[in-house]
Amino acid sequence: MESIWAYPAGSGHTEGQDLTGCAVAAADGTIGHVDREAEHFGMRHLVVDTGVWVFGRSVLVPVGMVTGIDTGARSVTVACTRAEVKAAPRFRTDSETMDRDYLASVGDYYHRLPPRDTSAE
């Protein structure tokens, strides 16, 4: 499951890249924008502000879900649907980004999602 916490090869990620403010798109539409990137316990993830879509809350998305980064368009594409992001373990406070058990539950959730064919995107 460690791969869920690392950017996949071919995602377009380069070390030191700032994704803050980038739009985040799921397979079926926009989910929000990157508020920040964090890494604790080797568990690297994006905190995505969903705006009004999910009642003004944020969600955590492990960077292993990133399928593409377009720096020109300032966008990040993830390999899941809006419903799957909405159903992920709820993110309530920033302290959860430093809670190993919470991060493990998020990683486990995304790791268990069915694989997607992203070659057509």
From TrEMBL:
Gene3D superfamilies linked to this entry: Photosynthetic Reaction Center, subunit H, domain 2 (3.90.50.10)
Q: Secretion signal: which residues?
A: none
Q: Which SUPFAM superfamilies match?
A: PRC-barrel domain
Superkingdom of the organism of origin: Bacteria
Q: Name one GO biological process term.
A: photosynthesis, light reaction
Q: Name one GO cellular component term.
A: plasma membrane light-harvesting complex
Task: Name the InterPro entries on file.
Answer: Bac_photo_RC_H_C, PRC_barrel-like_sf
> What is the official name of this protein in its record?
PRC-barrel domain-containing protein
